[in-house]
């Protein structure tokens, strides 16, 4: 509380705070300071120059809170104070108005402009309380969390920060990277311990670590976790493996135990409705019904199976985008006459499948195109491979069918192999 | 463990990196990441990150995994050289040659 009050007093007058702190504790204090002073955090998916320009248009008074003094961007920046005073603050934890807006979380819309999703305190708190109960974090013991995902994305924001706050758990400030880092971060904490991660990070950790500390829970999201990996994690760490399903629009809405069942169970109070082959979720923390961007198969009133993302959404190692957005950014590069991203079928289970792209850009090299894309999209969405082609196989309506893209991918691969 | 400071670019010690190790490492990376390129075409001094070979954090974790299996040591983020280990194939090879147990 003392740190949050001190930081709140340092915040510039602008109403919008881009919280770019990479240290989870600094991030949390940034959120708390914003809460105390009625400011709204902006949480974009990536800090590319293009995204920063968009944010400035969205909120001209935006300023950046960063714990990296070398971070260079064009926004006015407040560097997280290196040393806040020891302040034995006995203030009670304040009650926050449920209707207060806490954050704008951005997703890449399908047309090129990022979409902003407003998050109120009440909506966030109800969702993470339901999740904390599912995970057993509210059983009276002091749980400790380590997360390999950033706090700025919806999953990390909800689970590694808000769920800890709302259940009284402690969280590790670091975001451990290498397998040995993850093991060391966990070993430094008292039990019971929970690891918040993704299928890719979990597999990499289990494969690479020489020492696996005992865990109470493993929580995964962002991509489907296979049953073999879930079983392996449960056996090696003595943990229960939870998978959380949700989206930036809805927050978390369901969980499952992938080691034991493919079925998801909605959080208490939520309802699923089918309308014209689209699925809507409502109730609980969701104030207005929200359409889900996935293909579901209801099993009972509260249970369902998940059959994958709608075609346009892509999620690579926990970062989400849409093909529509990426295509827009690709074709907006000067010199690009036409271009299309394509998501090939997954090559490995619990691995990372990369996007490929086809580009018609007679005057540009691959390297120039990749450099221009890095200005606009997260590095994970820079295509691999990127094929330069003379034309795209558009049909008479100007559309690129999936079949045409598959055929183009096959012929480009064949040519590259020669 | 004593860690030698090896962050200065292109010092005389660069020539000491074993060319067999460089070749093996290039092949390990190309195989692990399924890169559609010839391992021999990777310039040992080219940056591995964004504007060079174009690798990102997911790739670095994949490489770290094969490196730890092949050379028998674990990479840690709190190493003083962490920023420079993956700056090029050559610096990665140099780091491996100091820390390898296999």
Features:
heterodimer, A: 418 residues, alpha/beta, 9-stranded mixed sheet, 6-stranded mixed sheet, 30% helix, 27% strand, B: 102 residues, mainly alpha, 4 helices, 0% strand, globular, disordered N terminus
Write the layout of secondary structure elements.
The complex is a heterodimer of chains A (418) and B (102).
Chain A: H1 2-10, E1 16-19, H2 24-36, E2 40-43, H3 49-58, E3 63-66, E4 77-79, E5 101-108, E6 114-120, H4 121-135, E7 144-147, H5 154-167, E8 170-171, H6 179-187, E9 193-197, H7 199-208, E10 217-220, H8 227-237, E11 240-247, E12 251-256, E13 264-266, E14 270-275, E15 278-283, E16 286-291, E17 294-298, E18 303-309, E19 313-316, E20 319-322, H9 323-331, E21 338-342, E22 356-360, H10 366-374, E23 386-388, H11 402-417
Helix pairs in contact in A: 1-2, 4-5, 6-7
Chain B: H1 19-33, H2 57-71, H3 82-85, H4 89-99
What does this structure look like?
The complex is a heterodimer of chains A (418) and B (102). Chain A has 418 residues and is of the alpha/beta class. In chain A, 30% of the residues lie in helices and 27% in strands. Chain A has helices at 2-10, 24-36, 49-58, 121-135, 154-167, 179-187, 199-208, 227-237, 323-331, 366-374, 402-417; strands at 16-19, 40-43, 63-66, 77-79, 101-108, 114-120, 144-147, 170-171, 193-197, 217-220, 240-247, 251-256, 264-266, 270-275, 278-283, 286-291, 294-298, 303-309, 313-316, 319-322, 338-342, 356-360, 386-388. In chain A, the strands form 5 sheets. Chain A has a 9-stranded mixed β-sheet with strand order 8-7-9-10-11-12-13-18-17, sandwiched between helices. A 6-stranded mixed β-sheet of chain A has the order 4-3-1-2-5-6, sandwiched between helices. A 3-stranded antiparallel β-sheet of chain A has the order 14-15-16, with no helix packed on it. In chain A, helix 5 (154-167) links the parallel strand 7 and strand 8. The model of chain A has no long low-confidence stretch (mean pLDDT 89). With 102 residues, chain B is an all-alpha fold. Chain B has 4 helices and no strands. The longest helix of chain B is centred in the first third of the chain and has 15 residues, at 19-33. The radius of gyration of chain B is 13 Å and the shape is globular. In chain B, 27% of the residues are buried. Classes of the chains: A alpha/beta (418), B mainly alpha (102). The interface between A and B is medium-sized, with 30 and 20 residues.
